[in-house]
Amino acid sequence: MYNQNRVNEDELSTYEALANQEWQNRLAVRSSNNVYNQSLVASLIEHLGKSETQEWCRGLVENFARPPRGGDMAQIKAAASGMADVAIANYYYLTRFAPGRQAENPEVFNPIEVFFPNQQGRGTHVNISGGGVIKTAPNRDAAIQFLEYLASPSAQAIFAQSNSEYPVVPNVPLDPIVARLGDFKEDSLNVAVLGGNNPEAVRIMNRAGWQ
Ligand SMILES: [Fe+2]
Prior knowledge:
Bound molecules: fe (ii) ion
Number of strands: 4
Shape: globular
CATH superfamily of the largest domain: Periplasmic binding protein-like II
Strand order of the largest sheet: 1-4
């Protein structure tokens, strides 16, 4: 997400480019102990390899506007206030500042625009809300029924409307604010890969000094 008073959309392109020097002191992102960014780094390991991802991570940390603190909403606020110019965050946290929403705040909502990185290439990294059944689950059938319910159009509509997430079931209506963002190309990497790369992602972030 970017502050449209301080950044032109054409300055933005990829996650990789955010490690370039032009972004020095301009990025807000939350701490490396959060799984959202661990997954982003895990995806880069898969696409770029470990050593290039380590280099990227060092450059990115150099560009932080402040030591990471707060959740996704705090990063968006930092970009809106001019503390930073770009916030790496999940888009749905922006909807919370919209008129009539739980954290309504035009000073945050109005200057911020959403940019989906890597549209010319592999697509934007996507985090998911997922569920599964562990091997030792005592109520396996009921657990599977519950997951099937969560994947039904009616439960997906609840995700889409209450947390402004993109539904996994096609044709479930989007939150109207999300619908305005338009279509974008998603990175198609299997989330199991992100899990497998997670420990290495955490090591890379630590070595880069990402607090
Ligand atoms: Fe979240």
